[in-house]
Amino acid sequence: MDISTIVGLLLGLVFIVGGILSSGELKAYIDIPSLIITLGGTIASTLASFPMEDFLKTFKVIKKAFSYEEISPDEVIQEIISLANVARKEGLLSLEEYAEKLEDEFLQKGIMLVVDGTDPELVRNIMETELVFLEERHAEGQSIFETMATYAPAFGMIGTLIGLINMLRQLDDPSSIGPNMSVALVTTFYGSMLANVIFLPLAQKLKIRSKSEILVKELMVEGLLSIQAGENPRIIEEKLKTFIPPEMRKDYRKQVEKEGV
């Protein structure tokens, strides 16, 4: 569970509601027709912008923004060093047994390519192609929220125009101008709030998640190719450490040896 997504969204709503209550009444900002125009219009235009299959994946993408099992680069480096030690002592073919126990399908696939004696250049091409398409799939999820963030303020403005038209039709009644103008501006408020409190933060969170996952996969590719090239585990460790920030770097090889691998 990603606490920061939940806390961030809740804090955004709390601060907005707090600001409203400290300067006026909350009920002045509640208008169902304005919400229908803004939210309904945003969903409709997003649906029109994407194939139905991609749009229906939105719910799955939302789940990923709130709940995500992050693979630590630390754990991947340790795993690669362990595999390098095994390959050095027992040969590359012995990695097949370890691959069957792995949950990560990407790493498992890479190991099997290495075990099958695939040319290193071809291994790199296959794995990097997987990464390219993985990144594209992630980008599709992000673009759905970015599109919603684009449409929400636009429908807020449309709602405002509808309210203004209704107001102009009742100019003979000066007492109705104030309330009608207030309702008209509520849609702009809804559009800006949906875009900046919900859609854009979710798109940004998915972008960060994607970047983190791609980094881990790149670590795996580089590690597997190093194992295939028969490099020393110490050299592999130093090479993989360059992918992560200095403060996260440890002596992974000693740690792996302590664990008796």
From TrEMBL:
<feature type="transmembrane region" description="Helical">
    <location>
        <begin position="32"/>
        <end position="50"/>
    </location>
</feature>
<feature type="domain" description="MotA/TolQ/ExbB proton channel">
    <location>
        <begin position="100"/>
        <end position="215"/>
    </location>
</feature>
<dbReference type="Pfam" id="PF01618">
    <property type="entry name" value="MotA_ExbB"/>
</dbReference>
<keyword id="KW-1003">Cell membrane</keyword>
<keyword id="KW-0472">Membrane</keyword>
<protein>
    <submittedName>
        <fullName>Chemotaxis protein MotA</fullName>
    </submittedName>
</protein>
<dbReference type="InterPro" id="IPR000540">
    <property type="entry name" value="Flag_MotA_CS"/>
</dbReference>
<keyword id="KW-0813">Transport</keyword>
<feature type="transmembrane region" description="Helical">
    <location>
        <begin position="181"/>
        <end position="203"/>
    </location>
</feature>
<dbReference type="GO" id="GO:0071978">
    <property type="term" value="P:bacterial-type flagellum-dependent swarming motility"/>
</dbReference>
<keyword id="KW-0812">Transmembrane</keyword>
<dbReference type="GO" id="GO:0006935">
    <property type="term" value="P:chemotaxis"/>
</dbReference>
<feature type="transmembrane region" description="Helical">
    <location>
        <begin position="151"/>
        <end position="169"/>
    </location>
</feature>
<dbReference type="GO" id="GO:0005886">
    <property type="term" value="C:plasma membrane"/>
</dbReference>
<dbReference type="InterPro" id="IPR047055">
    <property type="entry name" value="MotA-like"/>
</dbReference>
<keyword id="KW-1133">Transmembrane helix</keyword>
<dbReference type="InterPro" id="IPR002898">
    <property type="entry name" value="MotA_ExbB_proton_chnl"/>
</dbReference>
<comment type="similarity">
    <text>Belongs to the MotA family.</text>
</comment>
